[in-house]
Q: What sequence folds into this?
């Protein structure tokens, strides 16, 4: 069976995309589909390269049984566009920047992550970095809904 490769992208790769990576990995494991999916996350910015996820993201995820340990921030690389099948942006700004970077033949892979959560009114996962804990909870709610939609899409 072929492997589906998914890259989650935000700005810093320390809050939203690590939560998306952890949440999606958790769901995939629950379904016993680890061998069918390759998952990673990256940032469009380089400020936090090499750092673990933000401790608020790690704590909020842990409360939901989701483990972010072992993740380390990296920047999006040119070869990501070739390698991954889905390149999923957390907000419009990341989406636009990814489209700008993507070679024409791979642009179709770049989408807004929340397009997989059509029942949610939001189209973007808001950046929780400068806010309080509630922002992380809200981001996780959105990420969880889109992760379920994405898993449905790739297992259809
Ligand atoms: P993220 O959050 O894109 O969800 O990882 C941010 C983390 C850091 C910064 C901005 C957003 N920053 O400007 O350092």
A:
């Amino acid at each position: 069976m072929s492997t589906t490769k998914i890259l989650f992208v935000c700005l810093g790769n320390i809050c939203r995309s690590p939560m998306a990576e952890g949440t999606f990995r958790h769901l995939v494991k629950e379904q016993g589909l680890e061998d069918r999916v390759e998952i990673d996350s990256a940032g469009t910015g380089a400020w936090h390269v090499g750092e673990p996820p933000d401790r608020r993201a790690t704590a909020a995820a842990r409360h939901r049984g989701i483990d972010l340990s072992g993740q380390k921030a990296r920047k999006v690389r040119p070869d990501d566009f070739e390698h991954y099948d889905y390149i999923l942006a957390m907000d419009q700004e990341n989406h636009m920047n990814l489209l700008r970077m993507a070679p024409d033949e791979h642009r179709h892979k770049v989408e807004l992550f929340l397009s997989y959560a059509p029942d949610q009114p939001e189209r973007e996962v808001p950046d929780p970095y400068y806010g309080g804990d509630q922002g992380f909870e809200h981001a996780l709610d959105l990420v969880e809904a889109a992760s379920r939609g994405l898993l449905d899409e790739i297992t259809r």
Summary: The two ends are 14 Å apart (CA to CA). The beta strands are 4-10, 37-43, 86-89, 110-112. The CA atoms of residues 82 and 103 lie 9 Å apart.
